[in-house]
Every structure is written in structure tokens, then in C-alpha cells.
Amino acid sequence: MSHGCQCEKEYADKVEGFSAECLGNFWIFQGLSSEELGALVQRAVRRLYPVGGHIFRQGDPVDRMFLIKAGRVRLEKVFQDGTEVLLDIRKSGDFVGEQLFSEDQTDFPVSAVCTESTLTCGFSRDVFERLIREYPDIGLQVIKNMSRHIDSMSSRVESMSAAKLEDRLYHILAHLAREHGHLNSRGRVIGLPLTHEDLGFLAGAHRVSVTRAMKSLRDAGLVEQQHQSIVLP
User: How many domains, in total, are found in the chain?
Assistant: First the structure.
């Protein structure tokens, strides 16, 4: 079997194997009953996106949310002057389209672009609202889980507010390593295609400053470069 066919088979298996237990592993739906999770599974729309595929584009109407069952997604924003920046990276277990929960947000402010073959389970606004009317506890639990997630994100932001760029950049790399890295004999490897412009936006600094800060981190032995990857020993 070719690599492509094997990949398609693995994703097909994940679609077929999607269950209430699987859905309960998403942090946003943790704490729901088996009946509630079963109702969500029945109404979820599964879709496989190729590398470079858009789950949604900046400016598209906010009418759906997507759970990432497998794969990885970049959230990108283009400003009026044409500048394109990386805002976040989402992985399996996360979701995109949280603007669905905001009454004020009518258009997606960012684009969601797949950096890997990505399997999502989506819910339209109408379907999700009907589910909440049928199962009010779903709405209450989602609110509680989102509140805990916001608290966690706030703590992460505070840890990245260090005045020194090298410290901020290391906190960002450590977070990326925990969320998206893998272990090898050298340490934890960040294999994402990140440019210094990407890191500069995440750290709130110019690309040239990030380049200097990365050199300082390498000289201090805090990070290493392996081909296109960054390693935290």
C-alpha cells in the first residue's frame, strides 16, 4: 500500500471510529454525559482537508465551528496593508471557529489553514443551537470549560510578558514544544515550519530582533537548530 493510500485509510478509520468517548476527549466537551455526547456525535459533520486547505477564510460568515480530530491548523490574519501574520497554531483536540459563540462576530477575523492533512468534526450554528435547546447542560458545560480555558490562556500570556525578548521568545518556544513538539535523543523538537517573522509576531518583536534573540538562545545552549526544526534540549 502506498503512503498516500495508507494515510487515507488511517483517516477513514478515524472517521469510522468517531464515538461519544472520542468526542469527550475534546476539552470543550469534557464533563458531558454519554447521552449528550452521543447526540453531538450524531449531528457532527466530518470532513478531511488536504495540506494547504482552508477550513474557513478571513471574511467568511461565522456559521460553523470545527473540532480538530487529527492534523494541525494555522490561524493567519491579513491586514489592510497586505501584511500576513501567524496568530496561533491548533492541533488535534483543539477547535477553531470559537467566534460562533459571539453574537457580535459575524465574519471570521482570521483564516484557518491546514499544515497537515486535517480531519474535522463540524457543527453549524443552527445545529448547535438546537442541541443546546434539547440538552441545556451542553451549553452550561461548554461555558464552564471555556472559562477554565481562558484562565489557562491568561496564565500563559502572563508567563510570556517578560521584558527581555530572549525570555519571551523562550517561553513561546517552550509552549510550542509542549503543544506541538515531539521527543528525540536531543530533547523536544518543534518541527513546525516557523519563520522568524512568525516568531516575531508571537513575541511582539521585529524579525531582526528575533534573529538576534535566537542567536543568544543558541549561544546559551537553550535552543538548537536541526535542519528546519528547533530543539529545546
Answer: 2
Q: Which residue has the cell 468534526?
A: 121
pLDDT tens track for 87-134: 888 888 888 998 888 777 889 999 999 999 999 989 999 999 999 999
DSSP symbols for 165-219: HHHHHHHHHHHHHHHH-EEETTEEEE-S---HHHHHHHHTS-HHHHHHHHHHHHH
Distance CA 84, CA 5 (A): 34
Could you report the per-residue pLDDT of 214-227, keeping only the tens digit for each?
Answer: 899 999 999 988 77
* Residue entry with cell 455526547: 37
Cell of 215: 542567536
* Closest CA relative to residue 126, chosen from 67, 68, 69, 65: 65
- Domain range spanning residue 176? 160-232
**Could you tell me the CATH number of the domain that includes residue 218?**
1.10.10.10
